[in-house]
Amino acid sequence: MLARDAALTARGRWLDVDCLLGPTTQPFHVAIRAGQIVDMTPAPVLMRSWRFAYRATPAAFAAYWQAMPPAGWHDLLALTKRGEASLEGDLHPFMAHLQYFKDLLALPRQNGFGGAS
Amino acid sequence: MSGFIEPIVGRYVHVEIDGEINRIYFEENGSGIPLVCLHTAGSDARQWRHLLADEELTKNFRVIAFDMPWHGKSNPPDSQYGNEYRLTTASYTSAIRAFCKALKLERPVVMGCSIGGRIVLNLAIEHAREFRALIGLEAADFQQPWYDTTWLNRPDVHGGEVCAALVSGLIAPNGPEAARNETLWGYKQGGPGIFKGDLYFYRVDGDLRGRTGAINVDQCPLYLLTGEYDFSCTPEDTLRTAAGIPGAKATIMERLGHFPMSENPIQFRRYIAPVLQDIIDKQNS
Fold first, then answer.
1. Residue B2 belongs to a domain
2. What confidence category does residue A115 fall into, taking pLDDT thresholds of 50, 70 and 90?
3. What CATH number did the domain enclosing B265 receive?
4. Do A96 and B158 touch (CB under 8 A)?
5. Rounded to a whole number, what is the distance in Å from the CA of A46 to chain B's nearest CA?
6. Which residues does the UniProt record annotate as the domain AB hydrolase-1 (chain B) (predicted)?
7. What's the domain count of chain B?
8. Is B123 an interface residue toward A (CB < 8 Å)?
9. Which domain holds residue B220?
10. For labelling, which of A39, A70, B81, B221 has a CA lying 20 to 30 Å from the CA of B249?
């Protein structure tokens, strides 16, 4: 999905980071170089490091990915505020590229991935 | 239509605030009951342009929106360049009252959003007799913080980008894309540390818990309206605040977030027009 979104890739063109993203039940090691995902591997991978992790409950992602997500389930930081997601590690790359990560993790919304919350 | 000139007029007024003259930029349109509009933290009065241009509402209201000192076209006061900006309950209250006094407004209605909504509560507590009605958008006596404000002003993170990205989640999904972008553009343009300085009032100095019970709506009607998608000042925060103020009218606005007047002006109008009509009816009764 990211590969088809030239504007989002361009937004992340200054970003190189290894991070941990996804559901709490099955996060992924994600390697991003110049705004493109060059590797995505299910965690855990023994001794692989990451700068930051954003993990949310499967129910939270299902709500977040709805075309019209319910109030309070519509933003990555809304999910952390309500305790449905966690943000850990060195947050600098996440905060310096915050809109990129919000849009990246919202990509499934455009593709009808969301289920009922 | 190329060549169309909007009816909004912008001017500067010199306002003495806490002993120093501030050159304040404001825009206005309409005639009738003065309606002073307060922008959100870190932004400026452009958020009100749709209300300012509303042909029907400006038949009965002189709508006035000003940029707070340090915001938009209102520069910092001369003595303050180089100092850290910090908005306080006292300084915010002084600025609003001084602006109204400078324009010789007779018992204006004041409507504020976010920090503007919070300070409206303080106006109701301390200065209710000066106002005809008070309207708090996304207002509560207090709300729980949801991020660390130190991210807003540091040399290794672009201030405009991070300010806009943080508040982007407070806009309701599926509103007009252009209005969303315009709302965020205001945040990308704020001066360094200004959003953070406004939040000193919001987070630290302006905790009104335990004080709003002193509000008497018989002296000055109070309306509180909050968007359902606002997870900063949540509907629960507003309803809790309103529950402690007998006679306060609280409304939760569907399909709106933290910036109702700018993120989706048409949807916001559905909620604010009846409030303004209620104020007219009260005046005529």
1. no
2. very low
3. 3.40.50.1820
4. yes
5. 31
6. 34-144
7. 1
8. no
9. 9-284
10. A70
